[in-house]
Sequence to fold (158 residues):
Amino acid sequence: MRVVLRAKLYRVTQVRWVDIPKRAVAQLKFPPAEKSGVYAVLRFNDDLDRVTLLPGKRGCYKLAFKVELLRAAGVDAGNEISFTLEPDTVSREPELPEEMRKLFLARPQLAVRWAAHSVALRRQIVRYIEQTRSPEIRARRCWIFIERLADSGKLQQG
Fold:
């Protein structure tokens, strides 16, 4: 089940947002997000994106649109857009690179440290690792994050 919506884009810093009345999507029964909000599948301009609707102003969710989707459609802040939303019931957990999967099996304490971070951060890190074509660079990037987990328990520096 999905719902077709229309909303006006607005800009806050570099992000483009729309507000969605909660009553407009209440019948869809979205799965709750990890910390706040709900998970959805966005269909816009013949593209699909897995998104999180966040708590917004009273009675609304707010939804951030990826700039590349808006550019492809030739729209920006101030434009009214049409899109559909449907519940996203598929796991958000990223598929681990082989090096990390093997190490987490051998050293479960590192897997626990990995799991302590948000799904969003874990997905971002896996995307960063996987975006290179070189197996050597992919392995090096894996080991950067594995060493951070082993040293400090954190994935980000600082």
Q: What stands out?
A: The chain has two domains: 3-87, 98-152. Residues 135-152 form the longest helix (18 residues).
